[in-house]
Amino acid sequence: MYAATGEAPRAGRITAGFLSLGLSGSGRVTSLVDLRSDTDHLAAGRSVPLVSVVADGRQEVPAEVKVSPRDRRVLAFTGEKVTVEVKVVSFPTHATLEVVGLTAAPGVDVQTLLWGPLPTTLTKTIGETAGVVVGDDFVVGVASCCRFAALK
Q1: pLDDT of residue 57
Q2: Which tens digits make up the pLDDT trace of 85-127?
Q3: Which helix (H) or strand (E) holds 26?
Q4: Distance (Å, whole) CA 36 – CA 19
Q5: DSSP 3-state assignment of 30?
Q6: Longest distance between any two alpha carbons in the chain, whole Å
Q7: Is cis: bond before 9, omega within 30 of 0?
Q8: Strand partners, 84
Q9: Under 8 Å CB-to-CB from 45, ≥6 apart: which residues?
Q10: I need a surface site. Which of 39, 47, 53, 145 has the fewest CB within 10 A?
Q11: 8 A C-beta contact, residue 13 and residue 20
């Protein structure tokens, strides 16, 4: 969906090195594809929000994701009460996702922003604090600054 050159996105895809992350129109992760083997590493039958928030004590997931008209690298994830704007920049080895805006309806208390979790088919090693999952020939990692990368 994004290129290192800052190209305008194509709907539904974030490229991070060898990883292609598919997104639905509601901001849910629909695939985690190894571009070299065309293997989807998202757990079968699972579709989870890429980003959500806890607002007023309840998790709010987006109902829609759109490219911002102000900056084609920014995705606006909109739920019932909250909109989260995420700037996505892809590089040859990874992609960065940065929250650049959060707007809540009047009186809504946003307590936490959540990335994923992303259920995968990768089971060799699962990092509890580093956000890394490993398979036979593929590794997906998420750092605290939310860099997605395929490392193997």
Answers
A1: 94
A2: 999 988 888 888 889 999 999 999 999 998 877 777 766 666 6
A3: none
A4: 9
A5: strand
A6: 48
A7: no
A8: 77, 102
A9: none
A10: 145
A11: yes
Amino acid at the residue 2: Y
Which tokens sit at 56?
């007023």
Which residue shows structure tokens 């490392």? 151
Q: Do 63 and 52 meet the contact criterion of CB atoms below 8 Å apart?
A: no
Amino acid at 114: L
CA distance 98 to 86: 5
The structure tokens listed for 35 are 């571009």
Cβ neighbours of residue 68 under 8 Å, at least 6 residues apart? 74, 75, 76, 85
The pLDDT tens digits of the residues spanning 9-34 come to: 444 889 888 889 999 999 999 998 98
Angle at 77 between CA 15 and CA 118, to 5 degrees: 55
